[in-house]
């Protein structure tokens, strides 16, 4: 089986090589044509380069060391933890950051230079700059061409006004649609071109213009930054540098290297600034809260201080006794505890109110900013804020349908429930402590009430004053710490490798690959053309096609003869390759007949015109030249006319005459000019050919001919048209089926050969006629063969 497959593969390879050798000029032209197209494409397309950078992600930001509250929260979730570096990558690819980077690089305008058929995108090398009004609508997506003219002037026009022009206001971010817009003006540099649909001016850089050919046409186009952000977001490739490396690589394909570098620099700057703004926002919220509390305490402190001063002046009291001082000191400590507990109660109430209401969760203050040292609560709130920020980012980037969003939502709900439960517990505990402190303070106040009224009032005022003063100083300290934290704020992440050109070679077009594709297309196209031709051609073109549909043995091939003149080749061209191929078939027949004489050889085919009569004549001639008595019998009694003009015989009688009893064998027999070769023609056409062939007269005729001659060559009608050949096969010792290359239909031939196989007819062979010998040794000039 493996050998058959190898043989078949070898056949196809050999056929392909033979086809290339024969039609080398077509393959050469095709290769040159397609390689030329590839070279033109390499020249036409502007090169695209890869630029990129590497951003180092801080391990704490990337979640390398999760806090205990995060691990505890994971026990309530059926989802695994999301890779935090992937979330940072999502932030970097967000439309918000991409849009800010595009604004920083002035991507709302695209400049192009056209020279002939080739166009190149310009950036900083553009010889002119468009200054537009942001508060005025501009046509986006419309190509506006600019041609420099003498005397510091230029022509500006739109080659294709187009339809449904989008007008965009860059200031208000509004879009409207216009049916058509046509511009064609001659202006001076610096002049303002203003209509209800656009407003801009063009500024020239004469030094840069000198580098371009005078025939160069320039153009520019306004871009919708929203649509452009979507496009750039798809082209932006951001991925983790390696599995265990806390860094992300940013790559972008760009036609202008400097433009791509500037965009990536702007993107990373916006990303780092986003993290800075997030931490600054938390510090600013803390400072605003402390300012509000300081204002309240300051008013109370001023009032208490004024009351103390008035009391001392009116009562003329400056000091109190040791006992009263001790009592008031104890009461003061309890007041401080009460104030701390009230501050905690206010904070807990603030957190619960924020969670219950529709408030901005990102502004929720952590306990440490209010002087509450509770590590568990701090961890829970930090995790809650982190999850809430990540979820808000996914909402802003319109990724609410992703599995990450569902995971974050579930984790956020679990964290919120945990936070509410913890806050409720802390409120309950704090209320118990507050009740206990208030009870002790009431008892202490009862003891103070036993002191003299004047001392008692003075100590009460001083105690309230000191309490407000301590609270005020504490708030001032916390505010200073928050301001210092804000002032010392630095980005958590860093740029490990700045934006640069990743490789000097352009990634597109790949010139070598394009030329290789052009070369292979040049080879494949002729094969495809010949394949289509062969697919449309329903005839047999090779011996392999016959071998694929039948297991009948192959007896030989007859090569194509030049010219259309019918000749007896072994007589007229005895040294030709075709004559040698007929001798080869004669030798094979002699081998299959085991050297026996008085044998009948029958030839048939699928349709007429396949060379059956030609083979019969030359095969009979070959036996006659060996000195063997041979007769050629034409049983094609349905077809009038002479099928053997090379014999130059006018046969009035023939097979039909013998079978119908109108003539004897001697009367119908004709002697040819070839020694040992006789001929019996078909004879006149009769209305009952099948009945004549199926009669006993046919058996008698064949018996007599086989007794008189060494070889009887029987030429029969095509088997694909009539069944006469089947009736005659029982009288033949060898049956041959003639297949003509480029003429015999494949389907009909296959049906006939399968039918013959099913009938199990013995000694049945097939031969190939009209085989192309140009790619073989027989088709070349040599001393053994002559050209016929």
What does this structure look like?
The chain has 788 residues and is an alpha+beta fold. The chain is built from 23 helices and 24 strands. The strands form five sheets. Strands 17-24-23-18-22-19-21-20 form an eight-stranded mixed sheet, sandwiched between helices. A hairpin with a 2-residue loop joins strand 2 (109-115) and strand 3. Helix 9 (322-356) packs antiparallel against helix 11 (403-449) and helix 9 (322-356) crosses helix 12. The longest helix is centred in the middle third of the chain and has 59 residues, at 257-315. It is elongated, with a radius of gyration of 52 Å. Residues 61-82 have low confidence and may be disordered.
Instruction: Compute the CA-based radius of gyration.
Output: 52 Å
Structural class: alpha+beta
Lateral strand order in the biggest sheet: 17-24-23-18-22-19-21-20
Give a quick account of the main beta sheet: strands, pairing sense, barrel closure: 8 strands, mixed
Helicity range: 40-55%
The overall average pLDDT, rounded, is 81
- Would you report the number of β strands? 24
Topology:
Blueprint: H1 2-22, H2 24-44, E1 49-56, H3 68-74, H4 84-92, H5 95-104, E2 109-115, E3 118-122, E4 128-132, E5 137-140, E6 144-149, E7 153-157, E8 165-169, E9 174-178, E10 184-188, E11 192-195, E12 198-204, H6 206-209, E13 217-222, H7 225-235, E14 237-242, E15 245-254, H8 257-315, H9 322-356, H10 375-396, H11 403-449, H12 453-487, E16 494-501, H13 511-536, H14 543-547, E17 554-559, H15 569-572, H16 577-592, E18 599-605, H17 612-625, E19 630-634, H18 655-659, H19 665-668, E20 670-671, E21 677-680, H20 689-693, H21 696-708, E22 711-715, H22 724-728, E23 734-740, H23 746-759, E24 764-771
Parallel strand pairs: 17-24, 18-22, 18-23, 19-21, 19-22, 23-24
Antiparallel strand pairs: 1-15, 1-16, 2-3, 2-13, 4-12, 5-8, 6-7, 6-13, 7-10, 8-9, 11-12, 14-15, 20-21
Helix pairs in contact: 1-2, 2-13, 5-7, 5-8, 8-12, 9-11, 9-12, 10-11, 16-17
């Amino acid at each position: 089986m493996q050998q058959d497959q190898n043989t078949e593969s070898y056949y196809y390879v050999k056929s392909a090589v033979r086809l290339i050798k024969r039609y080398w000029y077509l393959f050469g032209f095709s290769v040159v044509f397609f390689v030329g197209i590839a070279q033109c494409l390499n020249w036409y397309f502007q090169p695209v380069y890869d630029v990129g950078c590497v951003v180092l992600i801080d391990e704490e930001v990337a979640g390398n060391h999760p806090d205990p509250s995060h691990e505890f929260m994971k026990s309530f979730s059926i989802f695994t933890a999301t890779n935090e570096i992937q979330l940072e990558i999502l932030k970097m690819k967000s439309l918000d950051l991409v849009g800010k980077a595009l604004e920083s690089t002035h991507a709302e305008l695209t400049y192009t230079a056209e020279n002939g058929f080739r166009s190149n995108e310009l950036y900083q090398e553009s010889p002119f700059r468009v200054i537009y009004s942001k508060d005025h609508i501009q046509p986006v997506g419309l190509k506006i061409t600019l041609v420099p003219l003498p005397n510091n002037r230029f022509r500006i026009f739109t080659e294709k006004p187009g339809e449904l022009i989008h007008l965009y206001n860059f200031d208000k971010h509004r879009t409207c649609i216009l049916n058509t817009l046509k511009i064609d003006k001659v202006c001076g540099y610096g002049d303002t071109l203003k209509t209800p649909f656009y407003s801009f001016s063009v500024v020239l850089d004469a030094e840069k213009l000198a580098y371009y050919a005078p025939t160069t046409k320039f153009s520019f186009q306004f871009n919708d930054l929203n649509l452009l952000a979507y496009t750039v977001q798809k082209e932006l490739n951001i991925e983790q540098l390696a599995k265990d490396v806390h860094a992300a690589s940013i790559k972008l394909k760009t036609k202008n290297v400097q433009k791509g570098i500037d965009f990536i620099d702007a993107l990373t700057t916006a990303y780092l600034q986003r993290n800075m703004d997030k931490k600054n926002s938390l510090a600013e919220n803390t400072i605003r809260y402390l300012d509000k509390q300081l204002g309240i305490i300051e008013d109370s402190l001023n009032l208490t201080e004024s009351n103390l001063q008035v009391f001392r002046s009116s009562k003329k009291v400056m000091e109190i006794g040791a006992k009263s001082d001790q009592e008031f000191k104890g009461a003061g400590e309890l007041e401080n505890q009460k104030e701390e507990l009230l501050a905690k109660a206010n904070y807990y109430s603030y957190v619960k109110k924020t969670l219950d209401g529709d408030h901005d969760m990102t502004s929720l203050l952590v306990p440490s900013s209010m002087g509450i040292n509770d590590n568990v609560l701090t961890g829970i709130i930090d995790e809650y804020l982190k999850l809430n920020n990540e979820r808000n980012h996914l909402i802003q980037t319109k990724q609410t349908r992703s599995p990450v969003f569902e995971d974050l939502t579930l984790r956020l709900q679990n964290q919120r429930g945990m936070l509410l439960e913890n806050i409720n517990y802390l409120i309950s505990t704090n209320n118990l402590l507050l009740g206990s402190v208030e009870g002790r303070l009431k008892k202490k106040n009862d003891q103070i009430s036993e002191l003299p009224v004047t001392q008692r009032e003075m100590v009460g005022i001083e105690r309230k004053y000191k309490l407000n003063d301590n609270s005020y100083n504490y708030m001032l300290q916390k505010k200073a710490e928050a301001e210092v934290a804000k002032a010392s704020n630095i980005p958590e992440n860093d740029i490990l490798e700045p934006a640069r050109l990743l490789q000097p070679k352009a990634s597109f077009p790949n010139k070598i690959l394009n030329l290789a594709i052009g070369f292979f297309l040049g080879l494949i196209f002729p094969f495809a053309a010949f394949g289509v031709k062969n697919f449309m051609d329903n005839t047999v073109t090779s011996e392999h096609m016959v071998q694929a549909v039948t297991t009948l043995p192959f007896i030989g091939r007859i090569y194509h003869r030049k010219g259309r003149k019918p000749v007896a080749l072994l007589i007229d061209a005895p040294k030709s390759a075709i004559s040698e191929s007929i001798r080869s078939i004669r030798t094979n027949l002699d081998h299959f007949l085991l050297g026996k004489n008085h044998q009948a050889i029958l030839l048939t085919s699928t349709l007429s015109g396949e060379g059956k009569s030609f083979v019969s004549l030359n095969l009979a001639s070959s036996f006659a030249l060996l000195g063997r008595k041979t007769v050629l019998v034409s049983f094609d009694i349905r077809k009038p006319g002479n099928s053997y003009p090379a014999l130059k015989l006018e046969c009035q009688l023939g097979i039909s005459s013998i079978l119908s009893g109108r003539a004897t064998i001697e009367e119908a027999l004709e002697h040819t000019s070839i020694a040992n070769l006789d001929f019996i023609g078909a004879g006149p056409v009769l209305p009952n050919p099948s009945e004549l062939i199926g009669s006993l007269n046919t058996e008698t005729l064949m018996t007599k001919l086989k007794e008189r001659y060494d070889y009887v060559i029987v030429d029969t009608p095509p088997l694909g048209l009539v069944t006469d050949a089947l009736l005659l096969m029982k009288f033949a010792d060898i049956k041959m089926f003639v297949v003509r290359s480029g003429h015999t239909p494949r389907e009909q031939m296959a049906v006939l050969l399968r039918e013959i196989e099913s009938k199990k007819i013995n000694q049945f062979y097939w031969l190939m006629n009209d085989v192309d010998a140009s790619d073989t040794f027989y088709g070349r000039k040599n001393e053994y063969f002559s050209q016929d």
